[in-house]
Specification:
Elements lengths: L8 H50 L5 H29 L2 H26 L2 E3 L1 H12 L12 E3 L5
Antiparallel strand pairs: 1-2
Length: about 160
């Protein structure tokens, strides 16, 4: 439908109302995305910095092109995830969706940051151990048996 092709009152009203509806939807989606994009951008920058520090500590060659490519890939992926969460939250008018979807994306990035940070401090934390270590760090008052935590000091020779 094009307004240049014999516009009727009904077609003009329909097209105008759809334009306003879509504009309002996209505005609300973008406003919902902005805080999450900022938080994820900071997390990606911190992960890049810690990744470079870990690579230096290991004595690996740091290739700037690879670091930039991986960082840009992360930005595109997380922007897509944040867009999905914000769009679903606005479409269903349910804020828990944006926190759940974006929280999972941020949790994945935080996992990487914590792994890099632990390695910089000389510790090797495996997957199960990291989650339990986070539980220990946030408080032992919840009554979970944490005897199976495996956090080991790394050899300095590596």
């Amino acid at each position: 439908m094009n307004l240049a092709d014999n516009p009727t009152t009904t077609s003009v009203v329909l097209q105008s109302s759809m334009t306003v509806t879509f504009t309002a939807f996209f505005r609300d989606t973008i406003q919902t995305m902005i805080p999450f994009v900022c938080v994820v951008a900071v997390a990606i920058a911190v992960d890049l910095y810690l990744g470079i520090c870990v690579s230096r500590r290991r004595g690996e060659q740091i290739r700037l092109s690879r670091a930039i490519r991986r960082t840009l890939t992360k930005m595109v992926e997380y922007t897509g995830i944040v867009t999905l969460g914000a769009t679903a939250a606005v479409a269903f008018d349910y804020d828990l969706i944006k926190y759940a979807v974006n929280g999972l994306a941020l949790a994945a990035e935080m996992w990487s940051i914590l792994s890099h940070f632990a390695e910089l401090r000389g510790y090797c934390v495996n997957g199960k151990g990291l989650m339990k270590a986070l539980i220990v760090a946030t408080g032992q008052k919840i009554g979970i048996d944490l005897s199976g935590i495996t956090i080991e000091k790394q050899d300095e020779n590596k």
